[in-house]
């Protein structure tokens, strides 16, 4: 992997270079897109409908998007920068965050033009995903001479961790011949506490400290009262299958179909998804009592799973049905 000051100096050359120049939006700002956005977001603000409607400010990037049909690529500078990172082994990419500023409302009929500049390339950073460089681009969106808003977008181009990067790990022929490992959970700022708990073999449920409502999956705010403060309670580990599916197809390499995936209702009332084990897949039923266990799938992946507490018998099923 290419490193060192000379390499970083080559990356820094791209700071300030253009990633897009005077590119027009694919459509003028328009009422149907605004309506669809508001419906998808559940945003009923009256400012976004009627004869004097403005577009929701957070739609800013939507007017610059190229859609599924794509469009002309970025400038040479942006492609070159990403190519330079690819060549050095930083082949993975993840969008990390964006910041927007709103300076002038957009209204139906406005035709936007945007410029984009490579604002910065970070120093080399090591993250949980791997080592790489943050690339920040800033888009300026204009209507005629007026700046309507700015959209600053940051990605991490990184070299994914390999087995050799793990403590004590070294790839062997046997490793490569083994079944691919399971997909990793996507850990972010909002759910990191949940996965840290799982690592310690504790299943943590988020609790709003304003109104006491429990929630799962983990979110920044309370859906009951909007409160932002929270703590956690540890799940007892008791639950029942609220609903389930049996996966037959498609066969993902890391899994052995058929297998049952349950939506488990915990004794505490929240529901979460996990594999239902300890019973043949075709014996999983709604209402099946299950208990939490933690299963280690490989040296770094621990997942909560749900083990059946009894094998349902046909007799019981008939009794329930009569
Ligand atoms: Zn609350």
From TrEMBL:
InterPro entries recorded: ChsH2_C (IPR002878), ChsH2_Znr (IPR022002), FAS1-like_DH_region (IPR039569), HotDog_dom_sf (IPR029069), NA-bd_OB-fold (IPR012340), Thioester_dehydratase-like (IPR052513)
Superkingdom of source: Bacteria
Gene3D superfamilies for the chain: Hotdog Thioesterase
Ranges of residues in domain FAS1-like dehydratase: 23-139
ChsH2 rubredoxin-like zinc ribbon domain boundaries: 195-230
Annotated spans, Disordered: 160-189
Residues in ChsH2 C-terminal OB-fold domain copies: 233-295
PANTHER family assigned: BLR3430 PROTEIN (PTHR34075:SF5)
Name this protein carries in UniProt: DNA-binding protein
Annotated source species: Streptomyces caeruleatus
């Amino acid at each position: 992997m290419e490193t060192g000051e000379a390499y970083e100096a080559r990356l820094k050359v791209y700071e300030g270079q253009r990633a897009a120049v005077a590119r027009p939006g694919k459509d003028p700002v328009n009422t149907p897109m605004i309506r669809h956005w508001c419906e998808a977001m559940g945003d009923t603000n009256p400012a976004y409908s009627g004869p004097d409607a403005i577009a929701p400010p957070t739609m800013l990037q939507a007017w610059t998007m190229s859609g599924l049909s794509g469009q002309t690529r970025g400038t040479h500078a942006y492609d070159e920068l990403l190519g330079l990172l690819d060549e050095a082994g930083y082949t993975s990419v993840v969008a990390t965050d964006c910041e927007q500023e709103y300076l002038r409302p957009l209204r139906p009929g406005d035709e936007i033009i945007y410029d984009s500049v490579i604002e910065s390339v970070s120093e080399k950073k090591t993250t949980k995903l791997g080592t790489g460089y943050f690339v920040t681009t800033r888009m300026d969106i204009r209507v005629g001479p007026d700046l309507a808003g700015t959209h600053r977008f940051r990605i991490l181009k990184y070299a994914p961790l390999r087995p050799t990067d793990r403590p004590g790990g070294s790839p062997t022929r046997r490793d490569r011949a083994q079944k691919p490992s399971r997909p990793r959970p996507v850990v972010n700022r909002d759910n990191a506490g949940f996965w840290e708990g799982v690592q310690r073999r504790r299943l943590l449920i988020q609790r709003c400290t304003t109104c006491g409502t429990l929630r799962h999956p983990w979110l920044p705010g309370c859906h009951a009262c909007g409160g932002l403060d929270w703590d956690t309670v540890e799940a007892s580990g008791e639950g029942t299958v609220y609903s389930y599916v049996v996966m037959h197809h498609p066969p993902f390499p890391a899994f052995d179909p058929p297998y049952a995936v349950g939506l488990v209702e915990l004794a505490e009332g929240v529901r979460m998804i996990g594999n239902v084990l300890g019973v043949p897949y075709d014996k999983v039923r709604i209402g099946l009592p299950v208990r939490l266990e933690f299963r280690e799938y490989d040296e770094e992946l621990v997942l909560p799973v749900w083990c059946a507490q009894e094998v349902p018998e046909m007799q019981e099923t008939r009794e329930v049905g009569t």
